[in-house]
Automatic annotation (TrEMBL):
The gene is dxs. InterPro entries: Dxylulose-5-P_synthase (IPR005477), THDP-binding (IPR029061), Transketo_C/PFOR_II (IPR009014), Transketolase-like_Pyr-bd (IPR005475), Transketolase_BS (IPR020826), Transketolase_C (IPR033248), Transketolase_CS (IPR049557). The keyword Oxidoreductase does not apply. It comes from Bryocella elongata. Its EC number is 2.2.1.7. Homodimer. This is 1-deoxy-D-xylulose-5-phosphate synthase. Mg(2+) binds at D146, N175. Pathway: Metabolic intermediate biosynthesis; 1-deoxy-D-xylulose 5-phosphate biosynthesis; 1-deoxy-D-xylulose 5-phosphate from D-glyceraldehyde 3-phosphate and pyruvate: step 1/1.
Length: 630
């Protein structure tokens, strides 16, 4: 049992501790994080990096009256431990347990939910201005990582801050890492500040002075650090140019310094940025040595950091392998990621074609526009952006790629349920938001080999295309040596089942990873004496209208199955096709309902929401005539 952490029921308890006790609390929190996340999986690296920052923030400020807004909020585990959720910490990212991100419905201390990067500064500014208008005196503090500043929205907010409020505190948590190493000029800029000898000297002096004179010195040091930093980079500090006072860089693990600095910043009547230097994974050697791996991962050995090897290749790895093959024979193929080389597996492509690999930072809108620009020069960009993150670049897909019929390929990993990350990361909307876009084709493979074929098909297509595929592994179908093109808009009849008159009792149209559920449903119906057809839809756009018509005209029931919301999804496309062909037939659509799906294990969630063969069988059975007993 921890001596201090177990007694923290709210931030008020943090304020009662002495500096020495706060240091002990930090040690206990690190131990709790390492041991707890080892079981649950999660974002251990980012959270180990913000232990002192979060303690100091809760020591100086008063949530929920004061508002903390974390960018992405994957680094909010320490905040959760200090705000009355320590006893439930072992449920984090587990079914029915704490969410892995901040969630307004989970706690009053969670001022703003997140999961996608770049939101904190804008949301915090909105809260600050609302406070000013209401005559409030609460503090608003945004904590954002260095990579959050590679996101355009962060700069849209910075452009507005000074004109709109005098009181906003921004903490730049600079560990020089995104998921991979942080990229771009802003990363370079922060690095220059952090490694300047003046700062290093100041830091050493700060530690000495604090020890000697206590807080007053810290304030002095904070100001000296600011002058030094400005001396290094000149008055033209990027934040100063936006009208904010810049302080730092300060050691983001030095609790006394942080506490004194926050007390100083609290009194400022001007928007301020505190540049804190932290170490991602601090206190856990495996996470320090492998910061990319320990950004976010499944369960691991808390002693060694070892994780269970994943035997079968994931769809992401198949994607990277297939793209490498295409790039080997076509020198116009280029790969673009928005700060997700690891998750998309493009870090497997990069060594083969380093000059044709681009990580643009957390900047999906820019990534799509960048791809569009390259496409105008004859290149064939493959934009690897998770389905959920591509939502950020919808206008660029429509206005800049599809309208100009540019041949950009959107490879949407995590298409479908994402699992432990929950509603901010499930890729359940991409068919709906892309199906209405002219010129664009939308594909969803039933297995790994078909993913390879679809990528080849996309390369051959003279316009924009989107391919969605799920997180994790598929059925394990080996890849052909050479991919084969698929006829655009052509579905694949896996099981015909029609009798000589063309009649079939049930026609199942399944898409992507739901083809496997379709096979289970077909087997179950046949075992109950019904005739069944099973079609692999392949395309959500264009729909294979001829195939839909051929089966639907003489089917007793039509079933559609998709790992996507029903509203505007594949089943909707089939319904529209039936309407256009004036075909009336009962249709059972299997997919996600019109609500945000919580985090959890995919199989459990599918069972709970009826996105399974079993649930489909229960809905289809009453629509069928009693089979003639054999
Ligand atoms: C719009 C969007 N794109 C990509 C991601 C994936 N992502 C989650 S955290 C992260 C890196 C964040 O780096 P930083 O802000 O520096 O925080 P740190 O993890 O270093 O604490 C990325 C790319 C996301 N959450 N949102
Ligand atoms: C916080 C964030 O957005 C990423 O770290 C995300 O959690 C990665 O998801 P995967 O684990 O599916 O790659
Ligand atoms: Mg970072």
């Amino acid at each position: 049992m921890s001596e201090y952490l177990s007694k923290i029921k709210s931030p008020a308890d943090v304020k009662l501790l002495s500096l020495a006790e706060l240091e002990r609390l930090a040690e206990e929190i690190r131990e709790r994080l390492i041991q707890g996340v080892a079981k649950t999986g999660g974002h251990i690296g980012p959270n180990l990096g913000v232990v002192e920052l979060t303690i100091a923030m809760h020591y100086v400020f008063d949530t929920p009256k004061d508002n903390f807004v974390f960018d992405v909020s994957h680094q909010s585990y320490v905040h959760k431990l200090l705000t009355g959720r320590e006893d439930r910490f072992d449920t984090i990212r587990q079914p029915g347990g704490l969410n892995g991100f901040m969630l307004r419905t989970e706690s009053d201390h969670d001022s703003f939910g997140a999961g996608h990067a770049g939101t904190a500064l804008s949301a915090a500014l909105g809260m600050a201005v609302a406070r000013d208008m209401a005559g409030g005196d609460e503090h608003v503090i945004a904590l954002a990582g260095d990579a959050a500043f590679t996101n355009g929205i962060s700069f849209e907010a910075l452009n507005n801050v000074a004109a709109q409020t005098k009181r906003l505190i921004i903490v730049l948590n600079d560990n020089e890492w995104s998921i991979d190493k942080n990229v771009g000029a802003i990363a370079e800029y922060f690095h220059k500040i952090a490694t300047n000898p003046t700062y290093v000297n100041l830091h050493d002096r700060a530690v000495g002075l604090i020890g000697k004179f206590g807080g007053r010195a810290a304030t002095h040091i904070a100001r000296k650090a600011e002058e030094a930093a400005k001396g290094v980079i000149g008055r033209g500090m990027i934040f100063e140019e936006f009208g904010l006072n810049y302080y730092g860089p300060v050691d983001g693990h030095n609790l006394p310094l942080l506490i004194e600095t926050f007390k100083f910043l609290k009194s400022q009547n001007k928007p301020v940025v505190l540049h804190a230097l932290t170490q991602k994974g601090r206190g856990f050697q495996p996470a320090i040595e492998k910061q990319k791996k320990f950004h976010g991962l499944g369960p691991y050995d808390p002693e060694t950091g070892e994780t269970k090897p994943t035997g079968q290749k994931t769809y992401s790895e198949i994607f990277a392998e297939s793209l490498t093959k295409l790039a080997n024979t076509n020198d116009k193929v280029v790969a673009i990621t928005a700060a997700m080389p690891n998750g998309t597996a493009l870090d497997l492509f990069r060594p083969h074609h380093p000059k044709r690999y681009f990580d643009v930072g957390i900047a999906e809108e820019h990534a799509v526009l960048f791809a569009a620009g390259m496409a105008t020069k004859g290149f064939r960009p493959f934009c690897a952006i998770y389905s959920t993150f591509l939502q950020r670049a919808f206008d660029q897909v429509v206005h800049d790629v599809a309208l100009q019929r540019l041949p950009v390929v959107f490879c949407m990993d995590r298409g479908g349920l994402s699992g432990d990350d929950g509603p901010t990361h499930h890729g359940l909307f991409d068919i709906s938001y892309l199906r209405g876009v002219p010129n664009l084709i939308h594909m969803d493979p039933k297995d790994e080999d078909e993913l390879q074929d679809m990528m080849f098909t996309a390369l051959e297509y003279d316009g924009p295309s989107a391919i969605r595929y799920p997180r994790g592994t598929g059925p394990g179908v080996p890849l052909k040596l050479q991919p084969a093109a698929i006829q655009i808009g052509k579905a694949e009849v896996l099981k015909d089942g029609r009798d000589l008159s063309g009649h079939v009792e049930v026609a199942i149209f399944a898409l992507g990873n739901m083809v496997a559920e379709g096979e289970k449903l077909a087997k179950a119906l046949e075992s109950e004496g019904h005739t069944v057809a099973l079609i692999n839809g392949r395309f959500a756009k264009p729909i294979d209208a001829a195939c839909v018509g051929a089966f639907a005209r003489k089917a007793g029931v039509l079933v559609t199955m998709e790992d996507h919301v029903l509203a505007g999804g594949y089943g909707s496309a089939v319904l529209e096709s039936l309407n256009e062909q004036s075909i009336e037939v009962p249709v059972v659509r299997v997919g996600w309902p019109d609500e945000f799906i919580e985090h959890g294990k995919p199989d459990e969630l599918r069972a709970r929401y009826g996105v399974t063969a079993g649930a489909a069988l229960e809905r289809v059975r009453p629509l069928l005539p009693k089979p003639v007993s054999a």
